[in-house]
Amino acid sequence: MKKLSVLFAAVIMVVSVGMAKAQKIATVDVMGVLNAMPEKKKADADIKTFLDSKQAEIKKKADAGQAKLKQYSEEAPKKTADENKARETELQKLQEEIAQMQDKAQKDLQAKQDVAFGPIEKKLNDAIEKVAKANGYEFIMDANSAAFVYKSGADATAAVKKELGIN
Predict the structure, then answer these.
(1) For position 32, what pLDDT does the model report?
(2) Which spans does this entry mark as compositional bias, Basic and acidic residues (predicted)?
């Protein structure tokens, strides 16, 4: 029975190695291709501009809050307890507004990235699929993947870049 198990395991290994060799596998440097695409470069610039403007708005509001805090701290000994309490409430409200602005900016940024990068990703995937079909590849994997242990197959990066019309 033990010999039968060993024989069965050996047969399975031989068959699986034979099947693996029959498959055509290629890799593609996805990040390299994406970074070479003019659409991605423009989207990155647009996203950076958007992010910079949101950060400037938040900084302006935060600076105004810091100025008020400094002013209120200096004037606190001269004010009544009720006035100081009202000022404290005002500062807390301002702090909450800044936090809401940051949350909204993060959500807006994510939405803008989704809208900007969706078509770019689709274009890349379509080009990869076209190259795979044209060259008979059954699998194309990302060359930058941490899951790679060994790479020794066709590299489809050049073909994908050619399909997209980039160098």
Answers:
(1) 92
(2) 71-85
Tell me how far apart the alpha carbons of residues 105 and 55 are, in angstroms, rounded to a whole number: 8
Rounded Cα distance, 167 and 162, in Å: 7
Q: What is the mean pLDDT of each run of 10 residues along the chain (167 residues)?
A: 48 50 81 93 96 96 93 89 91 94 96 95 92 89 73 80 88
Whether the model pTM is above 0.70:
no
| DSSP collapsed to 3 states, the chain | CHHHHHHHHHHHHHHHHHHHHHCCEEEECHHHHHHHCHHHHHHHHHHHHHHHHHHHHHHHHHHHHHHHHHHHHHHHHHCCHHHHHHHHHHHHHHHHHHHHHHHHHHHHHHHHHHHHHHHHHHHHHHHHHHHHHHHCCCEEEECCCCCCCCCCCEECHHHHHHHHCCC
pLDDT at residue 2, as a whole number: 52
Q: How far is 127 from 95, CA to CA, in rounded Å?
A: 48
